[in-house]
Each structure stands twice: as C-alpha cells, then as structure tokens.
Amino acid sequence: MIKLGEYNTLEILRDTEPGLFLGDAEDNEVLLPNRYVPEIFEIGEKLEVFVYLDNEERPVATTDKPYIKNGDFALLRCNQVTNFGAFLDWGLVKELFCPFKEQAFKMKAGGWYLVHCYLDDETERLVASSKTNRFLDNKELTVGQFDEVDLIVSHPSELGMNVIVNKIHLGLVFKDDIYKDISVGDRLKGIVKKVRKDNKLDITLSQIGYRNIEPNAEHILNELHDNSGFLPLNDKSDPQEIKDMLQMSKKSFKKAIGSLYKERQIIIDDKGIRLV
Q1: What is the value of pTM for the model shown?
Q2: Could you tell me where the DSSP H helices lie in 74-231?
Q3: 73-133 CATH pick, 1.10.1090.10, 2.40.50.100, 2.60.40.1930, 2.40.50.140
Q4: Could you tell me the residue ranges of all domains in the chain?
Q5: In which band, very low, low, confident or very high, does the pLDDT at 215 lie, cut at 50, 70 and 90?
Q6: Distance between terminal CA atoms of the chain?
C-alpha cells in the first residue's frame, strides 16, 4: 500500500514521457515526475520517495524532503492566506493547506506556526492544524518518572512552557526549570521530573541523572518540588522534625542532602534547603 504523507520504498516499473512509474508489492502505482528522476537508474531498482497529492489531487512522488510528514509536528511559515484558509511552506511544490477551522489563532502571511500534519478522513487530503493539543493524549502514558524524552516546544503559559512529549503527550516545563532561551518549535531532550495523579507531566530540561539518585534523595526532591522548592530542614534540624516531615531518619536525611548538594541540585543554608 502506498501511503500518503509518508516515505515509501517503491520499485521502478517503467520509464515514460512524464517520468518514472513506481509501484509496490500490491500493484499500486504512482508517478515520479521527470524533475525528480535520478540521472542513473535501472528498471526494477527501488527508490525511497515521499508521496502526496499534486495540484490536481492525484498521488505523486517526490525525492524532495518535506519539513513535516503525516502524524508529525513542525514549525512552518505561512506563505499566503486566502478565502479558504492558509497555505504553508513545507518544502514541496504544492503548499500545505491549513483550514480556518484548524487555526488556533488566525494565521497571517509571513508568520511561523507550530502545526500537526494529518490525513483528513473526509477529503483524504493532507492538511495542517495549529490546534496541536487535540492530537496529544495523556490518558494512557507511555513514559514514566525520570525517563528521557524528546520534546517539541509548543506554546507558553503562565507557569512556563508547554511541550510535546515524544510526539504523543503534553507536558509542562516550569519557569524555574528553564535555564536557557527556548522558542516555539525547538526540539530538545528532557526528563520526566514528575507524573501527577491526573497524568500531567512535569518536564525538566536539565540532564541531572535522576536514575542514579538514591530513593531518599529522590523523595526529598519530590517534596521540594511540591513545596515551592523549599523545606525548612537542614543538617542541624531535630531528628523528630525530619521524621515528621519526610518519614526518614536524620542520618538518612543528611546522606541524601549531601548527595544532592554535591550534584548542585540544592542549596543548604541556616533556614533550610532550596532547589537550585
């Protein structure tokens, strides 16, 4: 089956005046126009091509690499806006269409927008949507705490920056965890700092090696995050106070904060411990 909006590895079937006809194992065919035909080729050879619809809504193959494919997210430039919707530059001859109903905010020519590309069931055309959140789902998570994840910066909020996690889930990087300039569309690595009860994901951009942190240190980090980054405890605190607040001995507490301090994750002062 030849898939629209994706890369297909197809066999060269025959050379014709308009170009090469390529096919799959199910006898489906698509044209590779002359402008994309390689200088040297052989009938029976296989080519990797991207397949989409041309201006006459016919499947056509290209060796050009689009900036986005079906099911993916990318930051694209709006070339023009018409009475039908916006047309985006995705690196191919025919522009990618974004209907008005799929625009989170009205697009303007020359603007850059993070969009999701999908195959519309009604029209069977590839279209774009800047309403990216509707293509994300946190009901069944495929990631857990301390997992390293791939991120795409989505949009800002009052708490920080929303991010797309592994192209599947929605996450949030809090302002305190943003240590460098990031922009919508940036692709980054991150770590799942916390999975909340409602399956919301807290993400950090710091490569802090969570997996190597002992359980008590991990527990203290979680408590710090849940208490605005501060706990009124230090190595001089009363053992009972430590036990009441953290359910651990003073010896375990001192060992854990010593580890966190060496890794420069906390600051210890007379008032307590704070997240860096």
Answers
A1: 0.74
A2: 215-226
A3: 2.40.50.140
A4: 7-62, 73-133, 148-204, 213-275
A5: confident
A6: 53
